[in-house]
Design goal:
- With 411 residues, the protein is an alpha/beta fold.
- It contains twelve helices and 14 strands.
- The chain has three domains: 1-38, no CATH class; 55-267, Aspartate Aminotransferase, domain 2 (3-Layer(aba) Sandwich), CATH 3.40.640; 272-404, Aspartate Aminotransferase, domain 1.
- The radius of gyration is 25 Å and the shape is globular.
- The structure holds pyridoxal-5'-phosphate.
- Pathway: Amino-acid biosynthesis; L-methionine biosynthesis via de novo pathway; L-homocysteine from L-cystathionine: step 1/1.
- GO terms for molecular function: cysteine-S-conjugate beta-lyase activity; pyridoxal phosphate binding.
């Protein structure tokens, strides 16, 4: 045998006083005292392998169940701290962390739906949900039907024997309609059908889907929980432990898990989410009200405005507003839009909202609406309010909208 690295000459005693050869020492971290170390932060525990005390513990590892530690893919104490904190905020029993918000949705669908089943999704769902249903589930014999997000108790008429899940999202992506979720839950329960909610806009601080009887509450942690535009994560919270087991079965069999480092960033984001949301909700509502009367604006889509479809449900069910809303331009103002957007100084152009930086994104929803065809001719701009000085933001926004109005008719 060729000795690539001889360490014998320098071998010394290890912490226990026994001699450990260097090549062994380098892979064994010495135990250090934790006495007196009291930190306010959650340690980031990284692991692929989990080791066992003895052969018997290894042999019996599967009996540890979905709450125990068996393999790094299924979670470390960092993951479980984030899960437990979200479970508490969602008033649920368990939470599963997944690699993205979209994965949060697809994992629920894949866990609940079998060949021949149908899922009902709202017309204003996050668009990749529609894509997943049409392009992934349909070829595998799982069907979907799209419903009017304002349907309320009328959802009962769409529930036949094949329907297993009613998916909701409120307010809906981009067009911001707020559905009557308690009415949908009541109708679904009456028919023995499961319900789930994409709660990303509100976060569990402004609305708690499980508290109104939903079976699944999903958050794109990527957005407000992460809060700094630097992680991708999703969560699924449930009130029934049996669903937790089934969701964990799905993630285990598919082989997906999340990075403990990302969970640590989500845990940090959670700590400031309350003050961020309060601020962003106040500023977004103020901007929405001011933009309503701007000559370039046809309408403003923001749940806190009385003319937003479902405003009364938002007032009844939600604790407040977050920072994302949309503005519909008057028709015919497209000519200068690209230049005006590119000239913005503080607000960045981008889609994945919820961070500290304000974003704006021109959206087109025509292709994503099949139940209620979108008939507004003007372009839609979606705005996500960040944490910059509101005066700087308003200067940027006013300049954008003023630039779109034909000369002489500015605000
Ligand atoms: C962004 C978003 C998602 C998806 O989250 P990702 O982590 O980007 O996959 C799902 N639903 C809503 C409402 C979103 O805004």
């Amino acid at each position: 045998m060729i000795e690539l690295l001889s360490s014998r000459a320098h071998d010394g005693p290890n912490a226990e006083g026994a001699i450990m050869k260097d090549l062994t020492q380098v892979v064994h971290h010495p135990k250090v005292s934790h006495e007196g170390f009291a930190s306010l932060t959650v340690p980031t525990y990284r692991a692929s392998t989990i080791v066992f005390d003895d052969a018997e513990a290894y042999a019996n590892r599967k009996y540890r169940g979905p709450d125990g530690y068996t393999y790094g893919l299924h979670g470390t104490p960092t993951t479980k701290t984030l899960e437990a904190q979200l479970t508490a905020l969602e008033q649920g029993e368990r939470t599963v962390i997944v690699p993205s918000g979209q994965a949060g949705i697809t994992i629920v669908f894949l866990t609940v739906l079998r060949q021949g089943d149908t899922v009902l999704i709202p017309d204003n769902a996050y668009p990749p949900v529609r894509g997943f249903c049409a392009n992934y589930l349909e070829p595998r014999g799982i069907h979907h039907r799209v419903y009017d997000p304002m349907i309320g108790a009328g959802i009962a008429e769409l529930i036949d024997d094949t329907v297993k899940l009613v998916w909701t999202e409120s307010p809906g992506s981009t067009t911001m309609e707020v559905g009557d979720l308690p009415a949908i839950v009541a109708a679904a329960k009456d028919k023995g059908v499961l319900t789930g909610c994409d709660n990303t806009w509100a976060t569990p601080l402004l609305f708690k889907p499980l508290a109104i009887g939903m079976d699944f509450s999903m958050e794109a942690l990527t957005k407000y929980v992460g809060g700094h535009s630097d992680i991708l994560l999703g969560s699924i919270s449930v009130a029934d432990v049996a669903w937790h087991r089934k969701l964990k079965d799905t993630t285990r069999m598919i082989g997906i898990g999340v990075s403990p480092d990302d969970c640590a960033l989500a845990l940090r984001g959670l700590e400031t989410m309350g003050v961020r949301l309060t601020h962003m909700g106040r500023v977004s509502t103020d901007f929405a009200q001011r933009l309503k009367t701007h000559p370039a604006v046809a309408s403003v889509l923001h749940p806190a405005l009385p003319d937003c479809p479902g405003h009364e449900f938002w007032k009844r069910d939600f604790k407040g507003a977050s920072g994302v809303f949309s503005v519909v331009l008057k028709p015919g103002l497209d000519a200068g839009l690209d230049d005006a957007l590119s000239a913005m100084k503080t607000i960045a152009i981008g889609a994945s909202w919820g961070g500290t930086r304000s974003l704006i994104a021109p959206m087109s929803v025509e292709g994503d609406r099949t139940v209620n065809p979108w008939t507004e001719e003007g372009r839609i701009l979606r705005i996500s309010v960040g944490l910059e000085d509101p005066e700087d933001l308003w200067t940027d926004i006013a300049a954008l909208f003023d630039a779109l109005v034909p000369a002489g008719k500015g605000a």
